[in-house]
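Thread: quick sanity check before group meeting

JM: Hey all, I'm pulling together slides for Thursday and realized we never actually wrote out the predicted structure for the chain we discussed last week. Dropping the sequence here so it's in one place. If anyone has concerns about the input, flag it before I start.
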Amino acid sequence: MSVRGLLERLTSRVEALQVLDTPGYQLEHGVSLTFLLAGRWARPLQDLLHGVWLGHPLHPVLVTVPVGAWSAAALLDGLDASGRGGPGAAQAARAVVGLGIAGGVGSVATGLTDWQHAHDEARRVGMVHGALNSAALALYAWSFADRGRGRAGRARVTAAAGYGLVLASSYLGGVLSYRHRLGVDHSAAGREPRVFTPVARLADLPDREPVEVAADGVPVVLVRTDEEVRALAGRCPHLGGPMAEGWLHRDELVCPWHGSRFDVGTGEPAQGPATAPLPCYDTRVRDGAVEVRRRARWRTPTAVTTVEEASR
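JM (edit): ok, ran it. Output follows.
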């Protein structure tokens, strides 16, 4: 069997582990309760850990710290064990192991925050991914303590075991990102329509109520207020929630699935878990028909049509 076939088989078995469902939901409730205990700081803390301020998930940024640090530690341990690392190799190895532990703690916090919204197979893969990372973190903490006590041999062994777990977990992290699309942008792809396309009659749009239409096969949500018509992508960037089933909160469109909020004028996320902006469309009204055109992210709004203008 090829390496790819073996990994695929192991991944499929992890995805089928229904025994993980009950502890998974218990863990999710524990994460939610932890944030509830933070009171009014809960939402800012979640947005911080999700990476709303960064523009994409914070977790993949932080995981580079322990992976990079522990890779450096493996190299330094090898040099020290062979006698080619010089007098400072052991101290340098301990320092980067400690750096990796600090980054690992941050990775666990951000990973759990993102994982709590996963479902089914992705939830199970995420649990195994997190369990492997937690075991690796514990082994490296043990290794770090042994290095301080002068037990270099055992410290290298526990670090090597931890590094093996990190590699296995990294593969599952890739499965979560590239197969289950956890953390990627789920909003409508492409740049269609590129020209103004009629999608609805202005008279048919209720005030302040999201309405889904199709623009060249792409789901779009129209929001009419007293003064203007806005158009945004019909699927939430977080996990593809139907934005037309959401609602307006002040001037923000709320996703019905996980509560992400987006500015109706710019599409920028005002509240997570979504970190990517909701794509926007230019709008105009001709002969009572609302027309939309995909707005490039680098282009400022050029045609946000007001109801007053449409009546002229």
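AS: nice. The CA atoms of residues 198 and 267 lie 21 Å apart. The radius of gyration is 25 Å.
JM: adding both to the slides.
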